[in-house]
UniProtKB/TrEMBL annotation, chain A:
One of its GO terms (molecular function) is metallopeptidase activity. The keyword Cytoplasm applies. Belongs to the eIF-3 subunit H family. It is found in: Cytoplasm. Component of the eukaryotic translation initiation factor 3 (eIF-3) complex, which is involved in protein synthesis of a specialized repertoire of mRNAs and, together with other initiation factors, stimulates binding of mRNA and methionyl-tRNAi to the 40S ribosome. The eIF-3 complex specifically targets and initiates translation of a subset of mRNAs involved in cell proliferation. Gene3D superfamilies: Cytidine Deaminase, domain 2. GO terms for biological process: formation of cytoplasmic translation initiation complex. InterPro entries: eIF3h, eIF3h_C, JAMM/MPN+_dom, JAMM_MPN+_peptidase_M67A, MPN. Keywords: Cytoplasm, Initiation factor, Protein biosynthesis. This is Eukaryotic translation initiation factor 3 subunit H. Residues 21-153 form the MPN domain.
TrEMBL record, chain B:
One of its GO terms (molecular function) is metallopeptidase activity. Keywords: Cytoplasm, Initiation factor, Protein biosynthesis. Pfam families: JAB, MitMem_reg. It comes from the Eukaryota. The keyword Nucleotidyltransferase does not apply. It comes from Drosophila busckii. CDD domains: MPN_eIF3f. This is CG9769.
Length: 337, 316
């Protein structure tokens, strides 16, 4: 535990340890394969990222999948260590630089993700989580996002204090919980040559599905989860408002009691009797437990990303719609002639 | 069980990525990379879906070349792979080099034992780029010789590999290929969606220009017309469906309206969120109500109406 604590201090000192993530084509392809295969049986795919840190850049050069969680007898940590040791022998970078997960980007920034990323970042400070959006990628847009927890978020999670005051003092908002790190994909020259060769072998029509005009299903999904999130946030808001009302009520009662006490005390001093201390009254009003704000903040973050994605998706769909319009117009004018 | 030459071997691009990575990361003393090919077999179709590198030792003793594969390592790696991809079986081995090496015979014996009754395949990737190309060839060994006498192995070249690719992988591959073609562009950033649509539009424009030039050349009798090209062009032109003008308008308008509405909504929510930050949530129910109302009334095209009853109940 002591060593963890030491690392922690370093994390806070060196803010922005990583400016960008550079991902090898091999790692990308491996992640895509794993996530795609798992998503066909509706499972969540997870795996470890291997690489190295160069200056301010985190290079991801390889990765390997975590085995399916159905098997309870297996020791997951043992498995990871064994794989890394084996890969080390064939000169693969063996620094564990994070993990990846297949998911819908909007929903992925959840409490579970926060928790595991916290553990990663406290043991390996440079680590990132890469989220691969299967739904969007099958629509033709390669969607990989790398996230890290901000130092404030780590501090907050370490303290385990999720009261509004803690949020305020640490200046954590829904936008400053996760920091997105830009991803750059880079390949070696030999791989580039291989890809040019592949270009001739690939069927021409594959991989262009982003020109697909059907938008309803994606938009529908996005909207639905947006509504769900807003609903959750609303519940949280109701809870918080209730808390505020109760506190307000208690405060007024306390003031009334204190005023009454002051009057009584004045009476007593005039009669020469000993006064009653104010603490006695204050003790009667126990402070209310403050509802934790973590869920609300995370939900806000999710709503924010959903909103961003909807806006992005709609803008490109509009572009495609207008392309079709011009096609249609051209056809129509030809028909008239 | 001999391997049939007509069999259909499909290779996933990932394997090539892995082989090249293995070659680039080989140890200093090694001249090539060797590893196990994994995949599955359904009837006549063989799919090579994965691979892993195996350590080996090369030694030059006089004329003889000693080659030793770390078989224990190979078995361990295969067992580990079984945990995450239980459906993948050993299909053969890969190596890099100009041509078949002497080690192939020894490797064949080992992999013949590992891959069960089926003949192991040998994938050779020429990383020395002879002839300016990265050649990938697939071999299969056949025993030959006199019965009960000297026997040898004959490696036969199998027909050119077919690429097997899932749509997701194709998307990733296309993206990376685009980078190779335009190296001057921003270094491998994942671009926003709109940009990729615009980019592909530009590509289409270039292609249209090319086709137009060809047609003009043919019309001006500068170039001999090619019937195949003509047919392909005709097919492409007729594949654009002509919708009824009315119907198109209504679909188009409905779509545009939905999109604009979604954009408005999402940016509205975002602005509200920015204003609210953490502590004041009194206005969130306003957004929520707008969302629900708008959904019930205006999303003509989308079918979001089917939501749990509790939602609608709560607003009333």
């Amino acid at each position: 535990m002591a060593s963890r604590g030491n690392r922690h201090v370093r994390t806070e000192e060196s803010e922005n340890t990583i400016n960008y993530v550079q991902c090898d084509g091999l790692a990308v392809m491996k992640m895509v394969k794993h996530c795609h295969e798992e998503s066909s049986n509706m499972d969540l795919a997870q795996g470890a990222l291997l690489g190295l840190v160069v200056d301010k850049c985190l290079e991801i050069t390889n990765c390997f999948p975590f085995p399916k969680s159905g098997d309870e007898t297996m020791d997951e940590e043992m498995y990871q260590l064994t794989v890394m040791r084996r890969l080390r022998r064939v000169n693969v970078d063996h620094l564990h630089v994070g993990w990846y997960q297949s998911s819908d980007v909007g929903n992925s920034l959840s409490l579970a993700l926060l928790e595991s990323q916290y553990h990663y970042q406290t043991s390996i400070e440079e680590s990132v989580v890469v989220v691969y959006d299967t739904q969007k990628s099958s629509r033709g847009f390669l969607c990989l996002k790398a996230y890290r927890l901000t130092p404030q978020a780590i501090q907050m999670y370490k303290d385990g204090d999720f009261t509004p005051d803690a949020f305020r003092t640490l200046k954590v908002g829904y936008e400053s919980l996760f920091a997105e790190i830009p991803i750059v994909i880079k390949n070696s020259p030999l791989t580039n040559i291989m890809m040019s060769e592949l270009n001739e072998l690939l069927p021409e029509d594959k991989g262009h599905n982003f020109l697909d005009l059907g938008t309803a299903s994606v938009l529908e999904n996005h909207m639905r989860s947006l509504i769900e999130r807003v609903d959750e946030l609303y519940q949280e808001a109701v809870r918080y408002n209730k808390y505020q009302q109760v506190v307000f009520k208690q405060d007024t009662e306390k003031h009334r009691a204190l005023a009454k006490l002051a009057a009584e005390n004045a009476m007593r001093t005039s009669k020469g009797e000993p006064t009653v201390a104010e603490e006695e009254v204050i003790k009667q009003f126990r402070p209310m437990p403050v509802p934790p704000r973590l869920t609300a903040t995370i939900t806000s973050g999710q709503i924010n990303t959903h909103a961003q994605h909807i806006a992005q998706f709609c803008s490109q769909s509009l572009a495609k719609l207008f392309i079709t319009e011009s096609l249609q117009n051209a056809k129509e004018s030809k028909e008239i002639k | 069980m001999n391997y049939k030459l007509q069999s259909n071997v499909r290779l996933q691009p990932l394997v090539l990525f892995q082989i090249i990575d293995a070659y680039e990361r080989r140890s200093q003393c090694a001249s090539m990379a060797v590893g196990t090919l994994l995949g599955r077999r359904c009837g006549d179709v063989i799919e090579i879906t994965n691979s892993f590198t195996v350590q080996h030792k090369e030694q030059q003793v006089g004329e003889l070349e000693h080659f030793k594969l770390d078989t224990q390592y190979a078995t361990e790696m295969h067992e580990l792979n079984q945990m995450s991809y239980p459906q993948e079986k050993i299909m053969g081995w890969f190596s890099t080099g100009k041509s078949l090496s002497r080690s192939a015979a020894a490797l064949h014996v080992y992999y013949a034992r590992e891959s069960g009754e089926a003949q192991p395949l040998h994938l050779l990737v020429d990383t020395t780029l002879r002839g300016g190309r990265l050649n990938t060839r697939l071999y299969c060994a056949v025993t030959m010789g006199v019965p009960d006498g000297t026997r040898g192995l004959m490696f036969t070249l199998l027909p050119l590999l077919k690429m097997d690719i899932d749509s997701d992988e194709a998307v990733a591959l296309r993206f990376m290929q685009k980078q190779v073609m335009h190296p001057t562009k921003q270094l491998g950033r994942l671009l926003p969606e709109l940009v990729s649509v615009v980019d592909s539009l530009r590509e289409i424009e270039l292609k249209l220009d090319m086709v137009l030039r060809y047609i003009n050349d043919v019309l001006a009798r500068k170039r001999l017309p090619d019937n195949n090209v003509g047919r392909a062009l005709y097919d492409a032109l007729t594949s654009v469906p002509l919708l009824d003008a009315e119907a198109f308008r209504s679909v188009f308008n409905a779509n545009v309206r939905d999109m604009l509405l979604s954009i408005t909504l999402s940016s509205m929510i975002k602005t509200q969120m920015e204003r609210l930050q953490c502590n004041d949530y009194t206005k969130i129910h306003l957004i929520r109500r707008t969302l629900l109302l708008l959904r019930n009334r205006s999303f003509s095209h989308l079918q979001i109406k089917k939501t749990p009853k509790t939602l609608i109940y709560k607003t009333q």
